[in-house]
Automatic annotation (TrEMBL), chain A:
Na(+) binds at G105, T108. One of its GO terms (biological process) is cellular detoxification of fluoride. Na(+) is not transported, but it plays an essential structural role and its presence is essential for fluoride channel function. This is Fluoride-specific ion channel FluC. The lineage of its organism: Bacteria, Bacillati, Actinomycetota, Actinomycetes, Kitasatosporales. It is a multi-pass membrane protein.
Length: 169, 124
């Protein structure tokens, strides 16, 4: 019956069955934590869309803070994905929604990226805008790919290390 | 109220809003396209363009910016899930699909940011 009633073409490990309310709750807590961490980065380096929205820091600076937040968040997402979906598959059900959808989703921001780019264009810095557009995309993709690759290398499942002697005493 | 508390409150609403958009999209728009992340990023880009420009026009102060721009829009939108989806599409040899998803998200998100800012300029 389960197989007949399951119509999803792409079952996703995030979508384990169960009540939705606890997931919403942990995503909310995680999102608050992630947003605060991003706010902390803007306070430390007041530059980019968030700092501009809050403190009107000016139009011309290259948005390094937004770029750094997004690249770091994507790297950590790669680490998390491999850690929870390939290695520690029996971790608590709410850990991935809390850390992935909540903390890292709240930490990284797409809207600040488009806002940064728009303000650079409107400030007649088209070259910088295009550079930022491309650099963020490349950094985000390289970040998540590097996070996945490094974590796979570090968290190699036991028994596949190649020594093969089985000397556990 | 402290600025950080407003960011916290906005983040606590924005992230679950993105999750619920994803859940709604998953049941109502069953396809291989990542509608949830896409729609959340588009909505946040439109809204943030509007809010930041509203600030430039003097219509929204730092309290509203902390709650809505930094907190809500920042947490509603995401790069981490987006890039994770792109990587998994590329891993599944759906290179053209990943490229299309990337271009559509960046191009439309930027266009919506301009549209939101234009709407704020028209209003104030």
């Amino acid at each position: 019956m389960y197989l007949l009633s399951d119509v999803h073409l792409h079952p996703h490990p995030d979508h384990t069955e169960g009540s939705r309310a606890p997931v919403v709750a942990v995503v909310a807590v995680g999102g608050a934590v992630g947003a605060l961490l991003r706010y902390g980065a803007s306070r430390a380096w007041p530059n980019g869309s968030d700092a501009h929205a809050l403190w009107r820091t000016g139009e011309a600076a290259f948005p390094w803070t937004t770029l750094l937040v997004n690249v770091v968040g994507c790297f950590l997402m790669g680490v998390l994905t491999v850690t929870l979906k390939e290695r520690f598959t029996r971790a608590p059900r709410l850990l991935n929604p809390f850390l992935g959808t909540g903390v890292l989703g709240g930490f990284t921001t797409f809207s600040s990226y488009t806002d940064d780019t728009r303000r650079l264009f409107e400030n007649d810095q088209a070259g910088t805008a295009v550079g930022y557009l491309v650099l963020t995309t490349a950094g985000a993709l390289a970040g998540v790919a590097l996070g996945v690759a490094l974590t796979r290398a570090v968290l190699r499942p036991p028994g596949r290390t190649g020594s093969g002697r089985g000397r556990y005493s | 109220m402290g600025e950080w508390l407003l960011v916290l409150a906005g983040g606590a609403v924005g992230a679950p809003a993105r999750y619920l958009i994803g859940e709604a999209a998953r049941t109502r728009l069953p396809s291989a396209f990542h509608w949830g992340t896409f729609l959340a990023n588009m909505a946040a880009s439109l809204l943030l363009g509007f809010l930041v420009e509203a600030g430039t026009e003097g219509a929204l102060g730092s309290t509203g910016q902390a709650l809505l721009s930094v907190g809500f829009c920042g947490a509603l939108s995401t790069w981490s899930t987006f890039s994770n989806e792109l990587l998994s599409m590329a891993d599944g040899r759906r290179i053209a699909g990943a490229a299309g998803y990337l271009l559509a998200t960046v191009a439309l998100g930027l266009a919506l940011s301009f549209a939101g800012a234009a709407a704020a300029r028209a209003l104030w």
